[in-house]
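Example complex used in Figure S2.
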Amino acid sequence: MSKVLSGIRIADFTHVLSGPIATHFLCLMGADVIKIESPEGGDTMRNYGTDQSGMAPPFIAVNAGKRSIALDLKSEAGLESARRLLATCDVVVENFRPGVMDRLGLSHETCRKLNPNIIYCSISGYGQFGELRNNPAIDQIIQSTSGLMSLTGEPSTPPIRIGFPVVDTFTGLLAAFAIMSSLLRRERSGEGQYIDVAMFDAALVMMISILGPYLINGIKPEKQGNRGFSMSPTADTFPTKQGSITLGAVRQEQFERLCKAIGRPDLIADPRYADRKSRIENAGSLRESVIEGLASRTAEEWEPLLNAVSVAAGVVREIPDVAAQSHLTDRHLKLPVAFPGFSLEQVEVLNAGFLFAQDAPGIDRPPPRLGEHTEEIMRELDMPTV
Amino acid sequence: MSKVLSGIRIADFTHVLSGPIATHFLCLMGADVIKIESPEGGDTMRNYGTDQSGMAPPFIAVNAGKRSIALDLKSEAGLESARRLLATCDVVVENFRPGVMDRLGLSHETCRKLNPNIIYCSISGYGQFGELRNNPAIDQIIQSTSGLMSLTGEPSTPPIRIGFPVVDTFTGLLAAFAIMSSLLRRERSGEGQYIDVAMFDAALVMMISILGPYLINGIKPEKQGNRGFSMSPTADTFPTKQGSITLGAVRQEQFERLCKAIGRPDLIADPRYADRKSRIENAGSLRESVIEGLASRTAEEWEPLLNAVSVAAGVVREIPDVAAQSHLTDRHLKLPVAFPGFSLEQVEVLNAGFLFAQDAPGIDRPPPRLGEHTEEIMRELDMPTV
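Predicted assembly (772 residues):
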């Protein structure tokens, strides 16, 4: 068959990040995603910082493959077109503040009258009801209020923001999962669904490995720098002759192999490092010795040497080095998209991050210019083009 | 109808974190998830640090609602039971190192012979093929090699680990999304699927808002501390009289409202802060003035005051304060699960993070003891219990 969502049409009222990421995943699975955008500028992500071209790279990254119809939802004609469009759609996704879709006349109730089996997904900061619903919610704020910022860094450092909008991304994927589940449910039962996704709630679920145990044992989680959950001083990040490397030596035999590999077999017999407990107690001096041992080679040199003796090791890489690896091509992580008229003629966008043996995810169209498909979609709806 | 995945049976060969999180999401949607565990200890996550009870809280958090069958897959009897079980399952999920399922005699090819329409999902560090496939891959290592660690912190600070296993969690949700997509595809076409999910690939997709633009413009992303992407000095995290607060004042009118709210209207007229560009140039002195203004109240006091004048503000909270909020109950984020015989008699586990109007996600059973359902499942398979 063709892609799993081919023939599924999505009315996409979202903007900026969490919503467009949700529909991006659905687009990769073959859905016909139609962005409904205001004729005045459209999705604000089109323009970003000094890039006022309407095709800023962060917009391209999550909107390639979609179509765009420009509609003024505050005019009766625009609203009527939206309603005609909605009657043909399987899914609605929106991420306005709670109440805005109602005021526009596009509430879940209204959409269900137009299309009884519609799947309607609202994404917001704190959800569609409750005392927090009107609080402002950008990624940075949710990282603060959800506890995310309290978990990263050394015990003594102030709270640190995860340096990219991880909440938007996790929320988008979670919404895509909820929508995919609802499409399966509709396939089996014929019924639509209403889905209420909140960035705050998604952030809590993202911390399941921390918040889950806390709900059971009530032990306050503490920041622990770059050490892993074992708290082993040799499961940490270290400087080398050039670059940093993360090691995962926790068990006794891993510790011993590490000591030999870095030319410090003497550490094995040192009573201060005799077992896991004593190593944790003497973490400071052990760390110094490991740093001395690692100083003879670069991180790139150490990585294969240590992995070869079964000491888990990974170079701390920066984005340009990561992106240059052939792995990204071998694993179809980058999708080349022809982009006639854009400065580059072709761009690469990220794929879904998993491989299918059949009907692989992917897209082959550039992101739409604002309103690029207005006439095309109006024709599909048998509506006169304005 | 009942939950979307009721009647769907999943053979769960996963352990520790990414795999169990994938099947946790599917369990919340109603699937019958059967953990196939080694009789010698089972999932290593059952015991964690000093907790050797077999029911460590991090295990409970992602395994409630599942069943457990203890099978020695290295014995012919155990393998035969596994094969009989697989013939009744819709989905297989495994997260061994690449090649282990083959060696056990449970490869995708074998499973497909037992069950032609099976959906088989392998989760690994770097994927099932390619030169990186045998590299060790725990969350901390992937955070290093994927570039994740290079993005968080101040420009001058060394790389910082996100303080919880975010890659495991994102990978688990991504695998759940891929499996849900494949279940819909099977519903429509009758066909099974093979899915190859890699933690490294998932980490790259998680950074789509950074890596996506980089693939287009080639501009190396730099760490920017707690400032948002606007780089506005008033979209940052600040100390207060007590606790820290994150503000999102970017636009001119937001800046002006902030200055008035903190009793520093004089800053508006200061030529150093006349517009966005000059505020970025004079970020240091502006930050000092804002900190002075905020020193009169606590973060908890400032949050409602600032939000009321439409300056986005969020207290940097820690996990205990987050978990205590009624929001978690109001939004069904916590599922109470009776747990007879466990020290608490009842535990709470996190729900899926989204709300459905119909057939809400959830579970109502505790996590299984190792092999708790061996006899029950053997009876279902018409197999003699050993």
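Residues 133 and 324 of chain A are 43 Å apart (CA to CA). Residues 166-189 of chain A form the longest helix (24 residues).
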